[in-house]
Amino acid sequence: MLQCGLSYPALDSCEFNAGSFYLPVFIQDSVFNVKQKYFLFGNRGGVDVSCHSLQHPTETIMPQIAPIFSLLLFMLRKSLILFCASAISVCLGAQLPILERQVSIHASGTRLTEVFAQMEGQAQFSFSYNSKLIPEEKLVTVDVQNRPVREVLKKMFGESLSYKQRGRFLILAKAPKEEDKKVLVSGYVESAKGEPIPNTTVYDPNTLVSTNTNEYGYFEMKIERKEIPLELSVSKSAFRDTLMPVNPQSSSFQNITLEESPFDSLFRNSLTNIAEGAKSGWYQFVDFVFPSNPETANVSDTLYRTFQCSLFPYVGTNRKMSGRVVNEYSLNIFAGYSMGNEKLEVAGFANINRANVRGAQIAGFSNIVGGNLEGCQIGGFANIVGGDVRGCQIGGFSNTVRGDVEGVQIAGFTNVTNGPVGGVQIAGFSNVNMDTTKSIMIAGFSNHTLGKASGISIAGFSNVHVGSFDGVQLAGFANVNTGKISGTQIAGFANIAQTVHGSQISGFFNYADSISGIPIGFLSFVRKNGYHKFEIAYNEIYPFSIAFRTGVPAFYNILQAGMRFDGPSDTTRWSFGYGVGSAPKLSRTLRLNIDLTANQMTYGNDFDYLNLLNKLDLGFEWQFTKGVALAFGASVNLLIRENQGIYPYLYGDYNPQILETWNRNGYNAQAWIGWKVAIRLF
After folding, report:
1. What is the DSSP string of 634-677?
2. Any idea what DSSP says for residue 196?
3. What is the per-residue pLDDT for 179?
4. Please, what is the Cα angle at 380 between 374 and 382, to 5 degrees?
5. Where are the alpha helices (H) located in 158-213, listed in sequence order?
6. What is the pLDDT of residue 59?
7. CA distance 195 to 361
8. Helix, strand, coil percentages, rounded to 5, for the chain
9. Do 127 and 172 meet the contact criterion of CB atoms below 8 Å apart?
10. Using CA atoms, how far apart are residues 268 and 349, in angstroms rounded to an integer?
11. pTM: predicted TM-score of the whole model, two decimal places
12. In the 8-state DSSP scheme, what is residue 33?
């Protein structure tokens, strides 16, 4: 009992009985000199009205506040009336449709009017019909227990009547004339417990005409009129599939009972739980692209067709069953959706396949395959495969594969593969592989692999390989390898790797944790088995010079600088230069040094003219204790100057013997034999 209302001082109340819902409404007013009113809703929609009067004392309310209190009561009363009216409307609207209300009728040779009266009383509605259409004196026999009104009427009148609900009335009218080529098949699908099973698929395996039960388990479908009996298939997940015999010569009504399949239910629930737990961005995308309908979810059989034509998904010759059909040839005017394809599929916009595809797919925008591809895909924008690819993918923008690839991928922007790759990948921007790669990768910007890779990797900007790599990496800017590389890295700027069995060639910098070959670049650093020496030296030109050697003993880079002070009033003379060298090992503690360097010598801040000292050093390095070595040797020097330059006196305490002097084309050259002694650290 829901009661609403306040009374002051005299109340009239109306109690509405809507099924099991009772709603008292109180209306009064003598304070505002409003006459008493009764709201009579009548007996409509199963609502019974009873009214009675109530009296409440008013002496307890102070005269001073009575007007204010009365105003508040008036406003509250208006709000409650609106609420009550809304509640009644919701209560009535929530009732079952008349045709789905259950009745129990046990009649044998009983007048139709008596049967109608029983149905009206049990289901709380009224029939409305033309007595000329339905003779009231007709005797009927029907025996049902807790069955829908629709089913009882079908048993009494077959398909001769049509039904329409208007409020609490069920209007009976003559059914439209059946089409010459179509018959109506209808009925209820229930469980063994008599419970309706909604969203059950009923379909014809031959024509692929299908329908699904509504929330009350009821279905209707039109099929071709035939003389040969046929069987419709009835499928629902967690229930055993059932065949429904039908006589297609005339319309018919029959109920279907499905038996639960514990194994099927357990299997499907397990798969559902696994899928829900494993959902990632990819799975969510597939769920979005592969629309699911009851036919696809309920039917477990795979159907086959030679040819299908679609305008849109589910709008085509395979109808709503397209998600369960494998075709040999498919023509999708705009877009098509199917279980799979065997030979050729063409679409103006998109081809969408839930499972495997063999043969060729051509689409103006995209090809989407949930399973494996064996053949060739050509998409104006993208190709997406949820399984493996054996063949060729050509995408105007991208190719995306969740499984393995063996073949060729060509994309205007990017190729992305989640599984192992073998073959050739060409992309305008990047190739991204998340597993083992054995291929030739060519990208306008970058190649990325995660896992063991081998082959040739060519990129306009960079190659980034997380894992080992066997082969050749060629990049316009940089090659980066976090694992072992067996082969060669060539980059315009830098090569970075962990373990290198081969060579590194770069325009500027090479780094390796260890290397068995030779790094060639402006600057190379090898952490473990590299050659790193810091040198403090004295030679015939500079009493103090420093140098840093880095690389490997077979080939290293030299960065060096020197300084000389000739007195407090003199300007500093200094040099800076670069070179390369090699230090073959002669014994456990002795190496031979062969260095070639070039140093620009300056006087103060004068950089205007060429004053280049070129040196070929031949010497020895004796490691007399750990981390410290003594180096000494001779050098062949060639000094090249511009004639118009002003140069200070070059030599210090030692004046070498000038072997040769040249003066040609504005340049002056001198050659002599020099020497050097140095201490090297590390």
Report:
1. EEEEEEEEETT--------S--PPEEEEEEETTEEEEEEEEEEE
2. B
3. 67
4. 60
5. none
6. 40
7. 45
8. 15, 55, 35
9. yes
10. 33
11. 0.67
12. T
Taking alpha carbons only, the member of 474, 560, 558 closest to residue 522 is 558
How far apart, in whole angstroms, are the C-alpha atoms of residue 401 and residue 416? 6
Residue with tokens 């070595």: 629
Q: How far is residue 417's CA from residue 624's CA, in Å, rounded to a whole number? A: 56
Of the candidates 638, 561, 648, 643, the one whose C-alpha atom is nearest the C-alpha of residue 604 is 648
Rounded Cα gap, residues 111 and 619, in angstroms = 129
In sequence order, what are the residues at sequence separation of 6 or more whose Cβ sits closer than 8 angstroms to the Cβ of residue 127? 116, 119, 120, 169, 170, 172
Distance, in Å, from the CA atom of 86 to the CA atom of 82, rounded to the nearest integer, reads 6
Which amino acid, one-letter code, is at 152? Answer: V
pLDDT at position 35 is 34
Q: Which residue has the tokens 């500093």?
A: 572
**Which residues make beta-bridge pairs with 242?**
234
Q: At residue 292, what are phi and psi to the nearest 5 degrees?
A: -105, 135
Nearest to 513 by CA among 496, 503, 502, 526: 526
| Closest of 487, 457, 496, 488 to residue 475, by C-alpha | 457
What per-residue confidence (pLDDT) applies to 80? 63
As a whole number of angstroms, the distance between CA 548 and CA 576 comes to 12
Cis-peptide, bond into residue 9, ω within 30° of zero: yes
- For residue 113, give the amino acid letter: T
- CA distances to 190, 490, 518 from 479, in Å: 66, 7, 16
The residue type at 607:
F
Closest among 370, 416, 373 to 395, alpha carbons compared: 416
Report whether 409 contacts 417 (CB < 8 A): yes
Torsion of CA 308, 311, 312, 313, to 10 degrees: -10
* pLDDT score recorded for residue 138: 86
Instruction: Beginning with the edge strand found earlier in the chain, give each strand of the sheet holding 230-235 in spatial order.
Output: 210-212, 201-203, 230-235, 242-246
Low-confidence spans in the chain with pLDDT less than 50: 1-63, 85-94, 265-268, 270-284, 569
- Residue-wise DSSP of 94-151: TSPPGGGSEEEEEEEEEEHHHHHHHHHHHHT-EEE--TTTS-TT-EEEEEEEEEEHHH
- Specify whether the CB–CB gap between 682 and 536 falls below 8 A: no
State the SS3 of 447-480.
Answer: EEEECCEEEEEEECCEEEEECCEEEEEEECCEEE
Can you say whether residue 375 is alpha, beta or left, with left for phi > 0 and alpha for psi between -120 and 50 degrees?
Answer: left
* Residue given tokens 């008599």 in the structure block: 194
pLDDT score, position 597:
96
Across the chain, mean pLDDT equals 81
Angstrom distance (rounded) from CA 623 to CA 304: 82
**Cα–chain center distance at 578:** 53
CA distances to 379, 386, 429, 446 from 410, rounded to whole Å, are: 11, 18, 11, 14
Q: Report d(CA 110, CA 206) in Å as an integer.
A: 43
d(CA 511, CA 86): 78
**Residue 76: helix, strand or coil by DSSP?**
helix
| Paired tokens of 623 | 């490691």
Assess contact for 554 and 546: CB atoms under 8 A.
no
What's the length of the chain? Answer: 682
Question: Which single residue is written with the structure tokens 């692929």?
Answer: 208
The CA-atom distances, in angstroms, between 587 and each of 72, 583, 590, 620, 676 are 111, 12, 5, 11, 22
321: DSSP letter = G
The strand pairing partners of 221, in sequence order, are 185
Cα 268 from Cα 45, distance rounded (Å): 43
Q: What is the pLDDT of residue 84?
A: 54
